[in-house]
Specification:
Helix content is 29%, strand content 15%. A two-stranded parallel ribbon has the order 1-2. It is elongated, with a radius of gyration of 15 Å. This is Putative esterase.
Length: 86
Amino acid sequence: MLSSQGLDTSRVAFLGWSMGGYGALLLGSRLGPTRTAAICAVSPALWLSPGRLRRSVRRRRRLGGELGVRPACAGGDPDPGGLRQQ
């Protein structure tokens, strides 16, 4: 149906919030850039506690795989430095 409207259906996009954001990153990275058009992870669950932030960010950095990753945070984020350290 979508392809009959001229839309490219060969790649998919993922959107997830909180733990779903982590799932979106995980699924998109597993499919890779040939099957994933975009990933939007809103407030993704990337670590279980603040003390585990550094190790967790390094380990989860690979979630983007070959996909281009652009982390962004609003001015109200209590710890935007966690994103900048990536």
